[in-house]
Design goal:
Structural class: alpha/beta
Keywords: ATP-binding, DNA synthesis, Kinase, Nucleotide-binding, Transferase
Number of helices: 5
Enzyme class: transferase
Family: Belongs to the thymidine kinase family.
Helix content: 10-25%
Largest sheet: 6 strands, parallel
CATH class of the largest domain: Alpha Beta
Radius of gyration: 18 Å
Order of helices and strands: EHEEEEHEHEHEEEEH
GO biological process, one term: DNA biosynthetic process
CATH superfamily of the largest domain: P-loop containing nucleotide triphosphate hydrolases
CATH architecture of the largest domain: 3-Layer(aba) Sandwich
Strand order of the largest sheet: 5-2-6-7-1-8
GO cellular component, one term: cytosol
Number of strands: 11
Shape: elongated
Bound molecules: zinc ion
Length: 210
Amino acid sequence: MTELSALSAVPVGSRDGVLRFYFGPMDCGKSTLALQMNYNHRRQGRRGLVLTKHDRSGGPQVTSRIGLGSEAIEVVDDLDLVALVREHERVDYVICDEACFYTVAQIEQLADLTDHFGVDVYAFGLASDFRSQMFPAAQRLFELADEISRLQVEVLCWCGRPGRLNARVVGDRLVRTGEQVMIGDTGDAPVRYQVLCRRHHRAGDLGAAG
Ligand SMILES: [Zn+2]
């Protein structure tokens, strides 16, 4: 297959890859888009890997809430993503779900894959944590990515404004301190996450249903 870009006539194989970061709050359709992208590339005869971390199903799969699923490789902290790709005969693209939870070193490895091996990297994740502060891996993606897209797939705050930020709710209160990554329960109070607009995240207002 010959593929030409608008910017150059360099054939596939000798071109640089592209590093793209798609970010948005919970439930904005990131995993669904990741799976759709994998499906589309495969149909074109391209070969790729799907990576994930802390997937909500608990197993090494990318699951989306509309029920698509795909075998995925679990990204543990000491996994070298360049070495992983080079173990495979041919990898045209890598889809990285939950990339906000990767290490900063792994984000550097993704950039190496695009620059040195011509691999297209499509990373999906949250930008910021429950305090509205950036995850280190997300920050590095903002710094390095060729293209950045904010995903806004009809996820709304209780007030109807666009949902921008994830709030951590313990019991019935929004909390602003604690571990950056925390899933499930801590001690007596259940932990959940709720998407809020910027105004209500900053005000700590969970609305009547909160
Ligand atoms: Zn709001």
